[in-house]
What does this fold into?
Amino acid sequence: MSASTGEIKRVTTHVIQAMKNRQEKIAMLTAYDFSMARMLDEAGVDILLVGDSASNVMAGHETTLPITLDQMIYHAQSVVRAARRAMVVVDLPFGSYQSNSEIALSSAIRIMKESGAHAVKLEGGAEVEKSIKRILVAGIPVMGHLGLTPQSIYKFGTYSVRAKEETEALKLEEDALLLQQLGCFALVLEKIPANLAAKVSESLEIPTIGIGAGMNTDGQVLVTHDMLGITKDFKPRFLRRYLELFDEIGNATRQYISDVKSKSFPNEHEQY
Ligand code: KIV
It folds into this structure.
């Protein structure tokens, strides 16, 4: 925040790059709605990711595959309305960029135009090269995503750690370099060995943002609902839970129900 005007300075791709250059870690969290985005932005998170994990945590689907472009745009609009400082990055959902680069570009344009977000993210390396190129040519910043890419869950078969074998690790290193060469401004590395993530982060000029990728990436991201303990039973090793909101909200709700049933809410001070 500038001292003289109280004006808040927006985090941009340049700010993110400068953070890597001066070795300041980047803090990214997911957000899908106005109220949560407001709290995270006020707390100072650098990037708000409107992740397609909304498909899981907001809509209750088992995978990220069902969420649509229209639904992502709705979530993105709500987050953009709340974010004063944070950069807002929006996931291109499954099916909105894989088939060809023209569709990819039109999906990215819809997200930018209809939500006012600042960048898009998409999963994959060489296989989506043409789509990334075309989106970048239109002036839309792109964040890459390698390692465990949940949109390919039915190809992988499990959500376990990726790139443990040499061939997959080599392909990931090549893809990371390619994404940088194409012009991606940052890269998510999901659930890969810490040594590999460290090597990729060290070799790239653009920042890497890890989830389950160890301590040596340039930033970290978590799904906010996991970090706050709203998703009760999801407890992978990489997740640090800062609250147990499932239990706390449950307790508050039980107290409310009891107050209503016992007629202690509302009392005389809580009426007109
Ligand atoms: O959709 C999402 O939340 C993500 C993060 C896990 C990086 O892609």
Q: What stands out?
A: The pocket of 3-methyl-2-oxobutanoic acid is lined by residues 30, 49, 51-53, 91, 188, 190, 211, 221, 223 (CB under 6 Å). The chain has a mean pLDDT of 96. The beta strands are 26-30, 47-50, 87-91, 119-121, 142-147, 186-190, 208-211, 219-222.
